[in-house]
Amino acid sequence: MRQRQTPRSALPLRWLLTDARNDALLDAALAALPPNSALVLRHYHLRPADRMARMGALARKAQALGHLAILSGTAGEARALGAEGIYGAAALHPAPGLLRLATAHNTAEIAAANAAQADGVFVSPVFATRSHPGAPVLGPAGFHTVAAEATMPVIALGGMSETRAAELGWPRWGAIDGLIQVP
User: Fold this and answer.
1) Distance (Å, whole) CA 71 – CA 76
2) What is the residue-level pLDDT of the chain in tens, covering all 183 positions?
3) From CA 31, how far away is CA 168, in angstroms rounded?
4) Which residues contact residue 1 at a Cβ distance below 8 angstroms, ignoring those fewer than 6 apart?
5) Which CATH architecture has domain 11-175?
6) In angstroms, rounded to a whole number, what is the distance separating the alpha carbons of residues 42 and 25?
7) HEC string of 15-76?
8) pTM of the model
9) Where are the domains of the chain?
């Protein structure tokens, strides 16, 4: 797979994140995503070899549909899979030729993403989420406070859906449940 160069300003508006809950539904969810969306391949529930095999298959499917494939893993793993970028802590380190999508829960983590010159940052959790039941949330005001510190595009995450994104007044968001019907 050839890697596409996507400038910061052209980062997708919709980001589907994978986990154990939505794995069986991902093929249909990818096909239903708006054009030029992104898939963040996490699959932390699988053993390393199974994880890489599953994520490779999903990356190919996402790219065939015109979506970006972003890997939660190392730059070397992302390159081996033909992914366009990396997600999470690895995004705070140089990765020439790959998009780097950091994660942040507060302004200190935004400062780290800014210092690393990440291409984008997921700010979470905005709202209550099944991924982290009972975890404190930023809420709209907290999200906007944290997001205002970012020097790169911000992707809202945590309990997000089309309705919540509209309530938040934020065009760029990601979800596990909010873009797919998870049982």
Assistant:
1) 10
2) 334 455 556 899 999 999 888 888 898 899 999 999 999 998 888 888 888 898 899 999 999 999 999 999 999 999 999 999 999 999 999 999 999 999 999 999 999 999 999 999 999 999 998 877 888 999 999 999 999 999 999 999 999 999 999 999 999 999 987 777 654
3) 26
4) 59, 60, 63, 81, 82
5) Alpha-Beta Barrel (3.20)
6) 15
7) EEECCCCCHHHHHHHHHHCCCCCEEEECCCCCCHHHHHHHHHHHHHHHHHCCCEEEECCCHH
8) 0.91
9) 11-175
Q: For the segment 142-157, what is each residue's pLDDT rounded down to a tens digit?
A: 999 999 999 999 999 9
Token pair in block for residue 1: 């797979």
For residue 118, give the nearest of 136, 139, 102, 98 by alpha carbon. Answer: 102
Verify cis geometry, omega within 30 degrees of 0, for the bond prior to 183: no
Per the structure block, which two tokens stand in for 130?
């099944």
